[in-house]
Specification:
single chain, about 375 residues, alpha/beta, about 45% helix, elongated
Length: about 375
Amino acid sequence: MTFRAILVLQTVLGLALGALTWALRNTPTARRSRALRWVWVTGIALTAVPIAVWQPPAGPDVRRVRVVSVLDEETSRALAEAFTRETGILCDIDPFAGGAQSTVEWISQGRIHPDVLLGGTVEIHEELAKTGKLERFTPPPDPARVTRYDDPIGHWTPLYLGYLCLVYRPLPDLQANPPEWLTLINPRWKGRVAIPSPDQSGGGLVFLATQLLRQTDPERGWEYMELLRENGVRYEARSEIPVARVAAGAMDLGVGWAHDVLRRIERERLPVSLRIPEQTGYEVGGVSILLGARDPESCHALVRFLVGRKAAEIQASVGMRVPLRGDVQPPSYLSQGALAPEATAFYDRASVLRQREAWVARWRLLHGLATNGGGGEAAAGAGS
């Protein structure tokens, strides 16, 4: 029954009750009182019946995807809005307060239940794949898409590349001698260095892998990590925190993602400089669909959008990441030759995927942290 019909019926009943009341005006008082009582009870009952059975008309089904994103908020929002405009599917972006590694731990523990995990190095997504929490996705054929980083099983889908950089305050010493990896262990900067934590963030994991893989003997990499500890380095939960600390003057040197630093210099006028070292690690940022997603079809639609050209243009122009497409211009820092191919030739991603758990466990042991829990302790303070 429609709402309009209910109003018509109630109007008719009201008129009928009014007419009956008028007709009973000359009836003796006692009989009139009893008759009016039954008239009103009957009228109320008849009026309540259509109201009780009425249901508002069902609107169109609203399709939506809940996404936990570890990308920057501006890029996440731009991607979500573009996806909704193109498909009509709502995209709820939930930026998580922890780093990518912490996000994965919370998903694994069942503390958060997203449909899609967006961003973060694919080594982090692989951790969810190993525990059987990811649904498979096969990107549609597209000759413009770079496929060399694809997961052969299809549990996660690569979207972009990001490169580690050194960020520093424009102090005279650092301006005259731009920092390199060895600068971080120089006693001149003791207690003034911030780095993302390897057991909480994807950036920290890539940093650790970079120091181990760029050495001919990995043990020399561990010696470097020990020297960092002795130099009072502060480990942070997310990759953007060292950048913020350097910008605020709380630290003089830090490690972050080149795209994040460049974007914030451009958008926020952060008073920092950056340098991409001669050898640097990189992330293949990805997206994955969680098993048991509320609307798998909408999730697949989102990932199809994210591997397309429009989303890649947003990644490059808003996020300043390097998109994995041959038909999208990369950010200027890459197109201007700031990163030579040999800068990342040493970085063996297969080794990272194979050894990441053992590496992080040893790093935690180096810092006196438990090896069987989350990574919350790692950012407790300098030298932790």
